[in-house]
Amino acid sequence: xxxxxxxxxxGWRFIHHSYALVAQSHCLCLLxxxxxxxxxxxxxxxxxxxxxxxxxxTAEQEALLASLRAPxxxxxxxxxxxxxxxxxxxSAPRSGRRFAFGTAEYRVLAExxxxxxxxxxxxxxxxxxxxxxxxxxxxxxxxGLPRERVHVVPHGVDLEVLRPDAAARDATREALGLRDAFVxxxxxxxxxNKGVDVLLAAFARVAETEPRARLFLKGADALYSxxxxxxxxxxxxxxxxRETVAARLIYNGDTYSSRMxxxxxxxxxxxxxxxxxxxxxxxxxxxxxxxxxxxxxxGGPTDEFTQESFARxxxxxxxxxxPGAPDVGDYLEPDLDHLIELMxxxxxxxxxxxxxxxxxxxxxxxxFTWERVTERLVEVLFPGVRAATAQ
Length: 391
Fold this sequence. Notes:
Layout: E1 5-11, H1 18-30, E2 36-42, H2 59-66, E3 79-82, E4 97-101, E5 127-131, H3 134-143, E6 150-152, H4 166-175, E7 182-187, H5 196-209, E8 213-218, H6 226-236, H7 239-248, E9 249-252, H8 258-267, E10 270-273, H9 282-289, E11 294-297, E12 311-314, E13 316-320, E14 330-334, H10 336-348, H11 353-367, H12 370-381
Parallel strand pairs: 1-2, 1-3, 3-4, 4-5, 5-6, 7-8, 7-10, 8-9, 10-11, 11-12
Antiparallel strand pairs: 13-14
């Protein structure tokens, strides 16, 4: 295939959600490619109460994102990437091929996530799937899509923002009053699949004997009831554990810019993600890019982009949702005792932290920049196109 390729992306802009971050990060890379003619359609936000917000990206980047044009009536895309959350669009495109983006955390497409289709036999031949991990890809193969139509394109990081910076780390820790603390960090919606209940139970045990231990939870209150979910988990802890955690817990649910998130990652001593089910788990990658060692569940999608040189992996048990559960599919149950052990190790083996952090930052910089993963995306959308065509 030669010449300029016409691409339409349907997704979200200007909202602090992972789907919007991924869509916009790809767009910023694609806008630098002379061989891609890009258009963008804004999909409705998932909840009516959500509101767009500026300042997540730099002013220059947001000006570029705002300049993205909707397709003209005669614009006939050769590829359409549709990033509709929860309910992927499996309908035939007006032209070319549609690539439905999805993150099936529990590795099964529930009935309400099949676009009213009974099986993949009803998916048009002109429709394929893009998903960020082999863990998630299994859901679409179980649905019946041929493996050659299920493409794994991982997420990436912006090295201008997410990289080691000792001075920034010290300044942020000073500003947060954490200069002498050992900081465990976890970010996200604080929903059950993130394992926040396991994390709080483990931290309660660690904090009993470690006076320097602090847990920073960064929620997303503008999108989810993150603070309320954390409070609900605290309420079910035994009274003594609840008091111990509350005295050492720092919670913030504000919307941070990408640069503020970089500062927060760098301020941590270790990033902890005892998740049960994820499509990818981008914060683990972002923390590693900042030179922060990570603790994450073994057996899930993070196995695909971490190495033992910088990631301690929590033993986990493959588990299936019980009958009558609100979700269907399978997940990983992280081992609480092993998480406690790994959290204590991280605190008492700090001599290894600098080496592990450097290994993680180097690995991510080599393999998982947005530029590199966008090259992979272009190869999927336009087979035969090679990389290195960006300006």
